[in-house]
Amino acid sequence: MDINDTNQKEALFSPGCEPVVEDEERRRLLWLMAEYFRTIGYTDIKARLPGFMPPPVLSGTIEDHRPDFTCRQTDSARTPIILEIVTPDMVEDPVTENRWSLLASAAKLYNAELHFVVPKWSAIGPVDPALKRRLARMELTANRVWLV
C-alpha cells in the first residue's frame, strides 16, 4: 500500500475518528500524557499520534468516535484508561456532548477509568472548573481531570 492509498483511507474517517489528532494544542498535551504513562510502566498504549497505534473506533448510536488515548494500568486488574484531551474552546462546544457520552459509556462497558486532560494555563482562565461543571450537567463522571 502506498502513501496515497493511506491518505485516501484516512480522509474517509468521520470527524473524531481520525487516527491522528490534527489540533496542535491537543497533540502537544497528548504527547505529554503518552510519555508520562509510558514512563510509569503502563502498557497497551494507543494514542492518536504519529508513530503510535491509534485506539479503536467506538461505535455509537449517533456518531462513532476514536478516543484520544487508551492504555492499561499496572494494577492487578490491568484497569484500562480512556483519556480525552480538552482544550478551552472544547469545554462548551455542543459537538463534544455525543463524543464524551460515548467515551463515558465505553468506560462503563469496559470497566475502564475515564480521564480528561486540560491545560494548566489558559488565556480565558482555568479550564478544569468549567469542564467539571459541563460534565456534571451532562451527568457524566470523570475518574480524574489532569491539569497539564
Keywords:
148 residues; alpha/beta; five-stranded mixed beta sheet; 33% helix; globular
Please describe the topology of this protein:
Blueprint: H1 3-11, H2 24-39, E1 43-47, E2 69-72, E3 80-85, H3 96-109, E4 113-118, H4 128-137, E5 144-147
Parallel strand pairs: 3-4, 4-5
Antiparallel strand pairs: 1-2, 2-3
Mean pLDDT: 90
Note the beta-strand portion: 15-25%
Q: Globular, elongated, flat, extended or rod-shaped: what is the shape?
A: globular
**What's the total count of β strands?**
5
Secondary-structure class: alpha/beta
Ranges where pLDDT stays below 50 over 5 or more residues in a row are 1-11
Largest sheet: 5 strands, mixed
Percent of residues in helices comes to 25-40%
User: What is the C-alpha radius of gyration, as a whole number of Å?
Assistant: 15 Å
Largest sheet, spatial ordering of strands? 1-2-3-4-5
- Separation of the first and last Cα atoms: 38 Å
- Count of helices? 4
Element string (H = helix, E = strand): HHEEEHEHE
